[in-house]
Write a structure and sequence with these properties.
296 residues; alpha+beta; Double-stranded beta-helix; 7-stranded mixed beta sheet; 15 strands; binds fe (ii) ion
């Protein structure tokens, strides 16, 4: 397993696409691609490499139908259906992440990595912007490789072997309500489904190894409630430290959306945060996730 270059500024040469890093830590804009008109294998190979090297990449000015969005996501792997969010009518692979003008809380307004509470969390998430506020509604990202690299050898040693327990539907949400309670209370606009017997609490290594790059990353987020085998009280100080540490400003970038933009990130080495600063306006994003492996 080859180790890839570590930071956004060490990107390699590309012949089919232009890759423009937007921050020192992570994030890049990709130019020279019109996804709707077809992406050949060589170009897709470069996009995949740019994704692994920059962790979050985006393409502006794409005109994608829901079917084209799904087809492009499938180039990376099978679709990871959201266990709790209901998909679009006719396109169950797509969840519409919508915030309406009078809605106070937004979706994703905490630092997290998608689906970490499932046994095999989504490796990637692909968002396509359909409706945006005049300003605001940016998405922030943090680089969990850099967060790991910055830890002391002592703490790295302590964390090795520990697992975080992640809960997909607890009252540990800013609203203090479960997902269904939020819908009943009129907070939140994504229709929810009953997950049935699906597992929505999972334990994964706090330090995970990226299966494609071989690099280690800190794997925590807002869904992380305890350390396996520890009480909630014992877990809190260490988890709170890690949660704060993972989004230090120097590990982050901020993606400013434009209409019809496709943003695509790697959940195995990043966290993201949807900034809630556009009260009174509507925002609608189409979201597709791609299946990953069990973290190790
Ligand atoms: Fe998310």
């Amino acid at each position: 397993m080859a180790e890839l270059a570590g930071t956004a500024t060490e990107h390699r040469d590309y012949s089919r696409i232009d890759v423009k890093p937007i921050a020192g830590a992570l994030g890049a804009e990709i130019e020279g691609v019109d996804i709707a008109s077809g992406v050949d294998d060589e170009t897709f190979g470069e996009i995949h490499r740019a994704w692994l090297e920059n962790h979050v990449v985006y393409f502006r000015d794409q005109n994608l139908t829901p079917a084209q969005h799904i087809d492009f996501a499938k180039r990376l792997g099978d679709i990871h259906p959201h266990l709790l969010n209901k998909g679009l009518e006719g396109y169950p692979e797509i969840v519409e992440v919508k915030k309406v003008p009078d809605q106070k809380l937004n979706n994703g307004g905490r630092w997290h990595s998608d689906q970490m509470y499932t046994p095999k969390p989504a490796k990637g998430t692909m968002l396509y912007s359909r409706e945006l506020p005049p300003t605001g509604g940016d998405t922030m990202f943090s680089n969990l490789y850099l967060a790991y690299d910055a830890l002391s050898d002592g703490l790295k040693k302590t964390l090795a072997g520990l697992k975080g327990v992640h809960n997909g539907d607890s009252r540990n949400h800013p609203s203090g309500l479960t997902r269904m309670e939020r819908i009943t209370a009129g907070i939140g606009t994504i229709p929810q489904v009953d997950p049935g017997d699906a597992q929505i609490i999972s334990a994964h290594p706090l330090i995970r190894t990226h299966p494609e790059t071989g690099r280690k990353a800190v794997y925590v987020g807002s869904h992380t409630e305890s350390i396996e085998g520890w009480s909630a009280e014992e877990s809190a100080p260490l988890l709170n430290y890690l949660k704060e540490h993972t989004h230090r400003p120097e590990f982050t970038c901020r993606v400013r959306w434009s209409l019809n933009m496709l943003t695509f990130w790697d959940n195995r080495c990043t966290q993201h945060f949807a900034v809630n600063d556009y009260q009174g306006h509507q925002r609608s994003i189409h979201k597709i996730m791609i299946q990953g492996d069990a973290p190790f």
